[in-house]
Amino acid sequence: MTSLTYNDYTIAWICALPLEMAAARVMLDKAHSPLPKPFTDPNAYELGELNGHYIAIACLPAGVYGTVSAAVKQWQGYAALTAAAYAKLLLLAIPISCPDVNLMKSKKVRHWVVPLARNPKFVGRQDEIMKLEGLIILQNGPRRITITGLGGVGKTQVALELAYRIRDRDQECSIFWIPCTSHAMIEQTFLHIAQKLGLHDVNPAEVKEQVKIYLNSERAGKWLLVFDNADDAEMWFTGSNAAPPLEDFLPESEQGRILFTTRNRKLAMKLAPFNRLAHEDLPRDNTTTAALLERLVFLPLAIVQASAYMIQNGITLSTYLSLLQEQEQDAVDLLSEELRDPGRYNDIQNPVITTWLISFQQIQHQDPLAVDYLSFLACIDPRNVPQSLLPQPTSRKQKVDALGLLNAYSFTNGQERHIDMHRLVHIATRNWLRKNALFSHWIQRVAKHMQNLFLDDHHTNRGLWREYLPHALTLVHENEFAMKEGDYLDLIEKIANCLSSDGRYQEAEVLYKKLMRINEEKAGPQNPSTLSSMANLASTYWNQGRWNEAEKLDVQVIKRSKIVLGAEHPSTLSSMANLASTYRDQGRWNEAEKLGVQVMETRKTVLGAEHPSTLTSINNLAHTWKSHGKLQDALTLMKQCSDLRNRVLGPSHPRSMSSSRALNDWMDEYNVLIDQTPLAKEKCPQPRREVSAESSATVVTTLLTCEEHVNLPYPLRRSAATLFLKSHPLIIAARRPSPVPEGQSSQDVD
Q1: Residue range(s) occupied by CATH 1.10.10 in the chain
Q2: CB 3.0–4.6 Å: which of 154, 288, 600, 697 could bond 300 by disulfide?
Q3: Where does the record place the NB-ARC domain (predicted)?
């Protein structure tokens, strides 16, 4: 989240008692980090937000209480919870910008997420850009606009120049750019946008929906969202089991505008039927009659490539024109195969291919490594390629020279860390490789390189493997890869594990099924590799809430693992732990507890009391006991788990932080007082988790349902207030389903 000050908080919530502050805190949608305060101020503060309002909760210092009748201990819990529920519903009813309340508007922070640098050589298209700019800044203008035209006509450059002009013109407008070259690239960009917006705790599987919700809200301010190369109608309107149609995630806001670039006219009409800047509106320069421009059909990409060649080789325009005329027509036609466009006359040859072929032949003579890099890039997603993904030559200078040559010929647009290749250049290179029977060879070379390079799904590697994922997914979906996929099972498993760790369970499920099938065919149903694939597939079912499928598969894995590996093998115990978690989520508490205790005790004996897998079992058993109403046992066990994880894994490890946050939340939820129980005397080393409104549902209801089973550290009175809270409509209105406590890895539920 962007840094906030006290001036950003527009509503004060005054609490007389710490108990009232605890009740108010769990009603927040999101908690904020504390801000510094004067040493002369003894009061306690909690900061957060609810329904878009930034709220400061203030409380008297510890030990200072009121003296009126409302402070009678017996009624404090009733008063605190009822007041908090009323306050929450009141804030839900007040619009963020309500004119009747004199609130200072939250400061809008402008965001800039555009991966492409401005083209300093951009000329022309002034009328079109001015027209687009006018539509975007118009207060009641169209919310969706498309730029459509042939591939290479300059749609991306027009949109890019427009984005920079809007940025320079409007200091409050956020601009987001999403390349639509593949599902993986779209997912990666949405994750990057979410990070920029401060949505750090969003599940990657829900990131598009959460970004949409944010942009729909008033706090988003003004924004422009650009979808570049939105050419795939199926991606936008049909979708698949692993990826719903993108149209479902388009935000709608009076403050926002969406711009599409596409060569698909039908898609353009569906996305923005009445606001389309077509390629017919992009006029040629009628004053130019040079034979070269006529030959190149005035396509900007072809002109750029021709200019780059002439500059690089110091030849005249007439010499280059003769080279164009000498190109073998069969080669040009074959390389143009995937570039046929319904909007292009059949008797006009593709000038991009012609210019590409001339430049490519020159690069072949100058630098073989540049040709290798071009072939490598043809096998992966052409956008946002990390330079670290490329094969490393013997010297860094070789790499710099090769990439510089590709940039010089306008084949790539290399930045400091990443490389972009134009879609048409990408297609032309792929076609050239196919024409020369080299595409399959390069697919295998890239697969071998990526299998050695691709990282495991450890959380410390997340930033890098998220950059690699779009390119790995493009590779494994190639038909030429599928023909040899049995040679790259390690790569497929790494990709599936990373997808699972990122919450993209449906995509991971597809790859785990593939692994299970291949392993079963190669090694048999009881091979350890087959069992591992089955266990990972069961984990993806669990994470999607498909309990019955997860249970069925886990039971099979356990049965086979006991025979092949033994009852105490770590893999067998992991499958048993997963099954226990499935039982817990099905509400089969006794079975979950029995199996969870068995796994925990076995792991203590086999692996040791402080082994990370043993600590996972302790964590899971604590959640099972809490869900079953055994609060005191759950708190004791979670305190033990939190302490051990902080010592063994370190306080910054995700699982250490998860246990610490769970312990904090449970102690808050059940009002475990610091001075009345040894569990809370040591302050948890991790900062408090941002408490969502979902937590508020359990503050009262769990106390009521579990009090018979728990020896609380203070007496719970079954007063009229307690009985009243069971059915109070305000408390019922605040209830929401509780989320799953923690995620699940592909090895063990945690």
Answers
A1: 300-436
A2: 154
A3: 129-270
pLDDT given for residue 294 in this prediction:
65
The two three-digit tokens of residue 190, written as one number:
């949405």
Residues in the chain: 750
Does domain 300-436 match CATH 1.10.10?
Answer: yes
- What b/e sequence results for 197-224 when a residue is b if at least 16 CB atoms lie within 10 Å of its CB, and e otherwise? bebeebebbebbebbbebbeeebbbbbb
User: Residue 207 has which token pair?
Assistant: 């990131």
CA distance 454 to 184: 16
Q: State how far the Cα of 170 lies from the Cα of 416, in Å rounded to an integer.
A: 28
- Dist. CA 280–CA 358, nearest whole Å: 29
In 27-162, which ranges are E strands?
30-31, 44-50, 53-59, 112-113, 144-148
Tens-place pLDDT, residues 486-543? 999 999 999 999 999 888 999 999 999 999 999 999 888 888 999 999 999 999 998 8
Q: Distance between CA 150 and CA 342 in Å, rounded? A: 9
Q: Which two tokens stand for residue 453?
A: 């390079």
Provide the pairing of β-strand 418-421 with 412-414.
antiparallel
DSSP character string of 552-621: HHHHHHHHHHHHHT-TTSHHHHHHHHHHHHHHHHTT-HHHHHHHHHHHHHHHHHHT-TTSHHHHHHHHHH
Q: What is the pLDDT of residue 518?
A: 93
The DSSP secondary-structure symbol of 101 reads S
Characterize 429-449 residue by residue with b for buried, 16 or more Cβ atoms within 10 angstroms of its Cβ, and e for exposed: bbbbbbeeeebbebbbbbbeb
Question: Closest Cα partner for 609 from 654, 640, 573?
Answer: 640
Is the sign of the CA dihedral 196, 200, 205, 210 positive or negative?
Answer: negative
CA dihedral for 675, 677, 678, 681, sign (positive or negative): negative
- Burial (CB count <10 Å: 0-12, 13-18, 19+), residue 290: exposed
pTM comes to: 0.56
Which residues lie closer than 8 Å to 338 by C-beta, 6 or more apart?
Answer: 427, 430, 431
Structure tokens of 135? 């539509």
In terms of DSSP bridges, do strands 276-277 and 412-414 run parallel, antiparallel, or are they unpaired? unpaired
Phi/psi at 167 (5° precision): -60, -45
CB 528 within 8 A of CB 569: no
Give the distance, in angstroms, between the CA of residue 146 and the centroid of all CA atoms in the same chain. 26
Note the CATH architecture for domain 112-281: 3-Layer(aba) Sandwich (3.40)
What distance in Å separates the CA atoms of residue 618 and residue 609, rounded to the nearest whole number? 10
Res 449: pLDDT: 96
